[in-house]
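FORM 7B: Structural annotation worksheet

SECTION A. Query
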Amino acid sequence: MKKIILGITLLVVSFTNAQSTLIVDNNAFIDDTPSHVYTTFTAAIGGASNGDIILIQPSATSYGNITINKSVTVLGMGYAPELNNGETSQTGNITVSASDVKIAGINVNGWISSGNSTTDLLVEDCWIAAGAYANGTGIADITYRGNVIRNLIYLNATPTNSLNITITNNLIQNLGSSALQYFNDTTIFNNNVVISDQTHYQWFIFLSPNNFIAQNNIWLFTANNQAIVDQSGGNPIIHNNSLTYHYGTPTVTDLNGTGNLDNQNPFFVNIPANNPYWAADNDYNLGVSSAGNDAGTDGNDVGIYNGYYDFDMRGYPTELPYLTEMSIINNMVPAGSNLNVNLKANANKTN
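SECTION B. Predicted structure
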């Protein structure tokens, strides 16, 4: 029996152009006889050329730790899809050892790490369970945008080894000790929502920042023993046009910098009471009564949407339309006959 695959395979559109599109699918009964279909990522990357696209199908089984050693685009179907029985394109740790790589729509049950001399990496619309690392030597021009990032973001302790790292429009939560490490004067850290939920008072948020400026962020606190965007070592961070709020009783210490909105409720459009942690149904747009509206350094909102960015709560990648409805017209057919399926999908996003 051949399994009917109705995930991203059916939605490959003309954006592929001259590139080859390879499909990775470890589901049971998958037909892997076509030359572009693989059951493991290792086999797919081995068969790929620079510039190709690798589509990872949703599955109940993780594809395990993967290494991206070619200049490719790796796309999944989001980390909280409405269909596929909630199955995601899930991996373990992702190690990137090539330049000119894009990763989007992946449920990463581990970390993403950049190898030495990696440049021009874009990670977007991913769930990253164990942190983002850009701590090798010679790393430059790396962007994390539109992700949910847990645990930590770790750059190289030597400023010249992590240049032009952009971390923007992310939801960052479940922070560990010294969660944001070695940010420097080439690091852009703008328009993030950071939930500082550290439960150990001696834990710091930043470790050894170097001439670092952070702008247009929203800093949220949930633990009653934490009420400061603090740091250990380094130069004092300058925060501009950023908002702080504690969902408990403490007052957050005023940020160092200008244009900040200290101790202001962001009045998100929809989150559970006093619970800002990610959920697919949350809406982190700012309500009409929020002081963060049009309060950023660029005249747009503070936070992950910034007046224009289309943060996707389910992690659907920009390149692909995504299924919202599927119905089978004739669910019993004789061998060799056609199975008629109606599909509905939302169009590509615009960010």
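SECTION C. Observations
The radius of gyration is 21 Å. Confidence is low (pLDDT under 50) at residues 1-17.

SECTION D. Sign-off
Analyst initials: ____
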